[in-house]
């Protein structure tokens, strides 16, 4: 009797696992080509607001690749993931540096790539757990295998959180600067990128000294990368 129960449990676990794999692959393939107007993080924020009795309208407008500021694309890469065109979803160099820093007594810092953050924001929930990290790795591998780099960055810029209820570059540009996503200046783009580590506690329009220092560092990194020409590498990956 016990053996039969174990066999049935394993059979069902295998079926559920296989169904999850197939459905996740199909979902990622479908999302390669269509505009995306929501994410699990947006849903999570909406639920959190409802549970706390807060009214939180979600601001997000999809903008295609050519309608997104070149400066913003470069600023986010300079700030978040300078080897984005070259890795396959995981920056092993940054992961090693983060690990070594923590071993030497420093604070354990994040080493997530833009691909990982896209997977996390689109498909998963916030917070930290081994289960979520495992699913993040799975979806990161999928989008790296099934999407070009340009699509990954396009989706990231359209769904990343920039303030309470503000998601995506178009909504953030309008929210902070009153301009469209294709009209951001270098300074504006660098300030938006500078608040991404903690966007709900920082202000791109009225940056504090820490944000301003980081935005200046980001602009130097944008120059070091070679300017907008650096983005041409995304079309070949």
TrEMBL record:
It is found in: Cell inner membrane. GO terms for biological process: cell wall organization; peptidoglycan biosynthetic process; regulation of cell shape. NCBIfam families: mono_pep_trsgly (TIGR02070). Its EC number is 2.4.99.28. GO terms for cellular component: peptidoglycan-based cell wall; plasma membrane. Pathway: Cell wall biogenesis; peptidoglycan biosynthesis. Pfam families: Transgly. Peptidoglycan polymerase that catalyzes glycan chain elongation from lipid-linked precursors. Keywords: Cell inner membrane, Cell membrane, Cell shape, Cell wall biogenesis/degradation, Glycosyltransferase, Membrane, Peptidoglycan synthesis, Transferase, Transmembrane, Transmembrane helix. The chain crosses the membrane at residues 12-31. Residues 59-223 form the Glycosyl transferase family domain. Belongs to the glycosyltransferase 51 family. The keyword Chloroplast does not apply. It is a single-pass membrane protein. This is Biosynthetic peptidoglycan transglycosylase. The gene is mtgA. The keyword Transferase applies. Its main location: membrane. It catalyses: [GlcNAc-(1->4)-Mur2Ac(oyl-L-Ala-gamma-D-Glu-L-Lys-D-Ala-D-Ala)](n)-di-trans,octa-cis-undecaprenyl diphosphate + beta-D-GlcNAc-(1->4)-Mur2Ac(oyl-L-Ala-gamma-D-Glu-L-Lys-D-Ala-D-Ala)-di-trans,octa-cis-undecaprenyl diphosphate = [GlcNAc-(1->4)-Mur2Ac(oyl-L-Ala-gamma-D-Glu-L-Lys-D-Ala-D-Ala)](n+1)-di-trans,octa-cis-undecaprenyl diphosphate + di-trans,octa-cis-undecaprenyl diphosphate + H(+). GO terms for molecular function: pentosyltransferase activity; peptidoglycan glycosyltransferase activity.
């Amino acid at each position: 009797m016990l053996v039969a129960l174990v066999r049935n449990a394993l059979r069902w676990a295998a079926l559920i696992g296989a169904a999850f794999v197939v459905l996740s692959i199909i979902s990622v393939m479908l999302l390669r080509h269509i505009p995306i107007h929501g994410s699990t993080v947006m849903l999570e924020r909406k639920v959190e607001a409802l549970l706390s009795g807060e009214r939180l309208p979600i601001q997000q407008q999809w903008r295609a690749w050519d309608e997104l500021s070149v400066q913003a694309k470069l600023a986010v890469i300079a700030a978040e993931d300078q080897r984005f065109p070259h890795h396959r979803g995981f920056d092993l160099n940054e992961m090693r540096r983060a690990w070594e820093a923590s071993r030497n007594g420093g604070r354990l810092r994040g080493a997530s790539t833009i691909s990982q953050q896209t997977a996390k924001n689109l498909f998963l929930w916030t917070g930290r757990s081994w289960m979520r990290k495992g699913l993040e790795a799975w979806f990161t591998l999928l989008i790296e295998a099934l999407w070009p780099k340009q699509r990954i960055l396009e989706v990231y810029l359209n769904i990343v959180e920039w303030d309470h209820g503000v998601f995506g570059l178009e909504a953030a540009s309008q929210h902070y600067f009153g301009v469209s996503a294709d009209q951001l200046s270098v300074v504006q783009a660098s300030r938006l990128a500078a608040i991404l580590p903690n966007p709900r506690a920082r202000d791109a329009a009225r940056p504090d000294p820490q944000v301003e220092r980081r935005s200046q560092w980001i602009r130097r990194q944008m120059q070091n990368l070679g300017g907008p020409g650096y983005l041409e590498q995304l079309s070949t990956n």
